[in-house]
Design goal:
alpha+beta, 9% strand, 56% helix
């Protein structure tokens, strides 16, 4: 009973914070638009806190088949780092889930609601009651984060994937309230307003109860479309007892150059294509503000993917420990995968473009139990043959396909053909700039895909 008393006090505080809008409805004559402002601010804070919580979650996240989060390659990272000695470590594997949550809300839901409130609704008058209501709801969430999540080490028992429940719930509340604002004359009905506030309060209280006191009987925490698990045990590995006999490190320049492929794949995503199209339109209009803003967004996308790729592969040291080969991350101080080396271990050469350009090399190792895919990358290494000898690996074939000038010439010619079409539009007489930019927006994505494939074919046979 004594252990539950502080939890019940916090639950009471949550009820009080959620009921302040009820005072606004009954005493301060609030309408639906003010409720929408309050719940929008609460939902935005909830998303920010959930994304922050996700960074500290220790359990693994199984994800969803066919779903790729931003910076998806970080999902494979093991280990974490501490930004402060009194705080739990941040796990890079959770960054994709935090970015996905932030992207969905602040890139889609938040702007739509904000534009709806500012353009369709009446002017919002900032008052003391409105400020108190918003601050109370934000403080209740901040208190839960500091006292419950961090203070009682709840982060040890959850995954990043689980932590989207509360933001999803509040987003549904926003849609519900926004739907009723379309009714116009119904916005002033005190019964409707009171019902919305009470319903929101009961919903928040139910979520608090299932999180801290009892079990949910409605499976609210699961995806509505299925019942796949949202959490799995922490994926950290146990280092072999054998001492380090030999070690080699990756070639960092090859890793950075190889990140260009990750940036290329990022450019064909829906969001990046939308930003690129908006950038082309901004160039056509000649608006320097939008050109600068969209340029910064594109640079941030490219920079984040380069940094993510480097963190995935560029901080690895390969160690030979007895019968085991360990990929050890020097920054996170954690093994990423462990392979037992023997006659049954399968090695194959990866014909990477970067390796052909820089003279480095890498291998693929199959049959690894410590990773979901069953295969891992070994390298890139500045001298692959020397690394194999240093680590005493049973690899006897490291040759890549021979140079093929015919393939290079054919693929290069087709690339020039694809590039000649948009280039010709710029210099063709009688074609206005609007037509050129519109053609690039429509045809550009298809040309980029085909050109990328042909460039890969040509560069892989250099």
């Amino acid at each position: 009973m004594t252990q539950r008393f502080p939890t019940l006090v916090r639950g009471l505080g949550l009820v009080v914070a959620n009921c302040i809008p009820l005072v606004g409805v009954t005493v301060w004559n609030w309408d639906l638009w003010l409720l929408l402002v309050v719940y929008t601010a609460e939902a935005a804070c909830s998303v920010l806190l959930a994304a922050t919580k996700a960074l500290f979650a220790e359990h693994g996240s199984p994800g969803r088949p066919g779903q790729h989060e931003p910076l998806h390659e970080l999902r494979e990272k093991r280990g974490g780092f501490q930004v402060h000695s009194d705080w739990p470590p941040i796990y890079p594997r959770n960054i994709p889930f935090a970015l996905m949550l932030l992207g969905v809300w602040f890139g889609f839901i938040g702007p739509i609601v904000s534009i709806y409130v500012l353009t369709v609704g009446p002017p919002i008058q900032i008052s003391l009651g409105l400020t108190v209501s918003i601050v109370a709801l934000l403080l209740s969430q901040a208190e839960e984060f500091v006292v419950e999540y961090i203070g009682t080490s709840e982060y040890r028992d959850v995954s990043a994937q689980e932590l989207i429940r509360t933001p999803a719930q509040l987003s549904l509340v926003l849609l519900f309230v926004g739907f009723f604002t379309l009714g116009g004359s119904r916005a002033g009905r005190i019964t409707l307003l009171t019902g919305l506030v009470v319903g929101k309060t009961l919903s928040s209280l139910y979520r608090f109860y299932t999180d801290h006191i009892g079990e949910s009987s409605l499976s609210v925490g699961h995806d509505l479309s299925d019942h796949r698990p949202t959490s799995e045990p922490p994926p950290e590995l146990t280092m072999p007892d054998e001492a380090v006999e030999a070690s080699v490190v990756v070639d960092e320049k090859s890793v950075i150059l190889g990140s260009l492929s990750a940036i290329g794949f990022a450019l064909v995503s829906r969001f990046t294509l939308f930003v690129a199209s908006a950038f082309v339109i901004a160039l056509q209009i000649g608006n320097p503000v939008w050109i600068g803003l969209l340029s910064i967004i594109i640079l941030c996308i490219a920079g984040s993917h380069m940094l993510s790729f480097y963190l995935r592969y560029g901080t690895i040291e390969y160690q030979r420990r007895g019968a085991f080969l360990v990929a050890y991350d020097r920054v996170l101080e954690s093994p990423q995968w462990i392979a037992k080396v023997g006659p049954e271990t399968e090695f194959s050469v990866i014909n990477a473009i970067v390796d052909r350009l820089r003279g480095t090399g890498r291998l693929r190792i199959d049959g690894i139990d410590s990773v979901d895919q069953g295969s891992v990358q070994f390298g890139p290494l500045s001298d692959l043959d020397r690394a194999i000898d240093t680590l005493d690996l049973p690899v006897h074939q490291t040759d890549r396909p021979e140079q093929d000038l015919t393939t290079i010439a054919a693929a290069g010619g087709l690339v020039l053909f694809f590039l000649a079409v948009p280039t010709g539009l710029f210099f063709a007489p009688g074609v206005d700039s609007g037509t050129v930019y519109a053609s690039l927006v429509i045809v550009g994505p298809f040309a980029v895909i085909h050109t990328g494939i042909l460039l890969y074919v040509a560069l892989s046979r250099i």
